[in-house]
TrEMBL record:
GO biological process assignments: negative regulation of DNA recombination; negative regulation of t-circle formation; regulation of double-strand break repair via homologous recombination; telomeric loop disassembly
The organism of origin for this protein: Leptocylindrus danicus
Annotated protein name in UniProt: ATP-dependent helicase C-terminal domain-containing protein
GO cellular component: nucleus
TM regions (residue ranges): none
Protein origin, superkingdom: Eukaryota
Residue ranges of every copy of the ATP-dependent helicase C-terminal domain listed in the record: 5-175
Gene Ontology molecular functions: ATP binding; DNA helicase activity; DNA polymerase binding; hydrolase activity, acting on acid anhydrides, in phosphorus-containing anhydrides; nucleic acid binding
Amino acid sequence: NRYSFPYAPNYYNESNQSPWKRLLSHKAIVLEPKSTAEMKSAIEEFDKYIDDGKGRGCVLMGVTRGKISEGIDFADGRARAVIITGIPFPPLQDQKIKLKREYLDGVKASYTMRPTGEGGFDESSLASQRNSETISGTEWYSQQAHRAVNQAVGRVIRHRFDYGAIILMDSRFGDARNREGISKWVRPAIQADEGMGRAISGLARFYREAKSDPELSARAPLSKDTARRRIDAVNLEYEKDQKAKEKTVRAMEEDATPTTIAVIKNNELLSSSS
């Protein structure tokens, strides 16, 4: 099929140094399909490679804000590492993104410029409070990227006995503002890049220690039947959620009612524009 590529140990050689072939010489690869109808089949392919008994595993490639990074539970041996390549900022020139940023900047500016009022009623303190609670267009734009990253890294830990590595492959994560956007439970464990050699040895040590931990090693991976039932349940919930988001976005575009404005101010609507 178009999204599953089996392990091919002899695929890579010195005369052909394609990164894709080099990956396939170590592990099988499954790509997230564009079609929702093909998702179940893709996950079954992934499970097949994971459970083949040869211990080589599989690389599952997907996009942020997609079904793999947000809608499916990968517990235990189905996700021992999550690799984030880049920071998924929304397209800056997209018309909806530009309008959303301009709208939020306008709302924030309107609170900043509120008159103090006279005649026994002073609005200055209320305006100041509202201004501090309202995010700017730039803050909202950054939140969209950080929310997508946090959803993806959350795939690696699904219960108290689970373990896995999170690899952030973008130098911008070294910036304090981007690190602050990462979930609080991840931040204390973030380590600065000290070179490929140290990263590899550190990961090897981490997995050795995790496998030797009695509590962690006692957790057996989910059976394929159990995993499949979970996937089916998540598929249904994901589709319902997507329909609800689309309905909310349409309502926002057609009529920015006071209720819609309140939702935007409370940041409940942010994910719908992703």
